[in-house]
Amino acid sequence: MTAKQRSADVQIDEDIDFATLIQNKQLLQGMEQSGYERPSPIQLQAIPLGRLGVDLIAQAKSGTGKTVVFGVISLEGINLSLKVPQVMIVAPTREIAIQIRDVLRALGQYMDGFRCEAFIGGLSVKGDTLKLHHCQVIIGTPGRLMALLDEQKINTKAIKLLVMDEADRLMSDSFLPQIRYIHKKLPNSKQCVAFSATFTDELLDSLRPFMRSPQTVRLTDAVPTLEEVRQYFSKVSVKTESTDVLAPLKIYRAKFEAAAALLSKIPFYQCMIFVNSFPRAMELSKWLTEMGWRSAHISASLDQAKRITVMEQMRDFKLRVLVCSDLIARGVDIDRVNLVVNVDFPPEIETYLHRVGRTGRFGTSGIAVNLIGPNDQPFLDMLHDRGIALQPLPENVSYGAFQKELTKDEQQVLQSHQSKRVSKESKPLKFTKGSSQKRSYPVKTTDPHAHKEQKMRKEATEEKPKPKKQKEDTETAAKSYHAPSQDTTQTAWQSHPHQPYAYPAPSYPPLQPFFPSPFLLPRSNRSSHVQTKHFIPPDLYF
């Protein structure tokens, strides 16, 4: 860990640096260049065991440096003069595999002849064959690694280390057959190490057949979340009736508005918003973009090239907000994320812990806010039973809470994002020629009702003859229209002493209703949907 002040999750009492644990000078130089100076507790305990060659099962909280553990074990053990695969690292998602590759490349940047590559689905198999040339560390997802092994594309004779990252996920029914196949194809003498933030006794029983007398390092305490991540809840009130078929949609819209309001209320560098379905992620991202936020969405429904592009934009600080599914709830580390918002609760508590772990990385501070709808109380009770107590979101969140320091270039990028959003928020609305009443205050040009208002004013001023009744209706509508007044001359963000991290309260564009096609419904429901002409909320079929 770096020398900056961190939480107790990554602090050790001993005066030990990485030079005590690592002998390779080129690797130490890469560690120092990457900002690692002192080991975290999991690194201090697991690295020596891994270097001894024993099988290892390690558990620690998200964001405490598990990737560095198996990165060091991998790089210390390879023979750089041998240009064949010697280490295989298996990750459950493509994003985690790419992230591991980038971390190992950074650690081994001064090791002459070192090469590692990622092999993931969604990309060309022919390209993977070329990447295997002179590759010493193979990182990939189970499906692609299994395919390459099945086609005998990988020379496995020299592989002496198998790493399973996010092992609790790899031991699930969807991945377990592939992991068994991969394990069987590798030499019997290999070392096996497994890492995750969450383990159960059943999971340990599932891992033991892959190992020989494994050593276990478990650092997770009774409270499995990071100490410097403050967890809050904010209730979203929606007036609905039990017979209201549109109730899920109303809740869905209210949570969108609440999530957007949080972005203006809470200071942050980058934010991750979690939802449970691809349509929601897409709609929320589009809406936030119209409001001026630099946002994008990511889920398993996107093709691989777009997913890679979105993650690169987020890491390069070209995006402020990422709306995502649980695809990247695990293992993905984006250094500047200090705000996580749960619009939807996940199906299980373990996934919630992984979501919250996307902030507060490496002992820094972060905030997680959970939006509570009318049907979310059972999940709150489950969290309480696990010893995770959420606090009500205060009116004023502390602006000095974040220990993460931005560089000078990052500060300039942040200010650029803020200025672009403010200018987009205050862009004046253009009026048609002949308008009798012009607004003197800023209005969002993305207002979907603006063109209707202009059309109404134009019809009210046109001299062409109209039926008497239609003319009266038009005049009545024009007279009854009152432009909204701008009475908030001094808003909270303008008077706040920490203006660089505060934002103007947005004027929310109305959410567009999402009318699903009958063909998105199950076949049994299509005819009734067409006959009754009911609006079916997205929650009922996604």
TrEMBL record:
Q: Does the keyword ATP-binding apply?
A: yes
Q: Where is the Helicase C-terminal domain?
A: 258-414
Query: Which GO cellular component term is one of those annotated?
Result: cytosol
Under Gene Ontology molecular function, one entry of this record is: RNA binding
CDD domains registered for this protein in UniProt:
SF2_C_DEAD
Composition bias of kind Basic and acidic residues appears in 446-476
Q: Which InterPro entries match?
A: DEAD/DEAH_box_helicase_dom, DEAD_box_RNA_helicase, Helicase_ATP-bd, Helicase_C-like, P-loop_NTPase, RNA-helicase_DEAD-box_CS
Record carries keyword RNA-binding: yes
Please report a single Pfam family linked to this protein.
DEAD
Q: What is its EC number?
A: 3.6.4.13
The enzyme's first-digit EC class, named in words, is hydrolase
Composition bias type Polar residues, residue spans = 483-494
Which residue range or ranges hold the Helicase ATP-binding domain?
Answer: 47-217
Compositionally skewed regions (Low complexity) per UniProt: 495-505
- Transmembrane intervals: none
- Which SMART domains did the record assign? DEXDc, HELICc
- Check the record and name the PROSITE patterns matching this protein: DEAD_ATP_HELICASE (PS00039), HELICASE_ATP_BIND_1 (PS51192), HELICASE_CTER (PS51194)
Span list, region Disordered: 410-505
What family is reported?
Belongs to the DEAD box helicase family.
UniProt name for this protein: RNA helicase
Question: Which source organism does the UniProt entry give?
Answer: Apophysomyces ossiformis
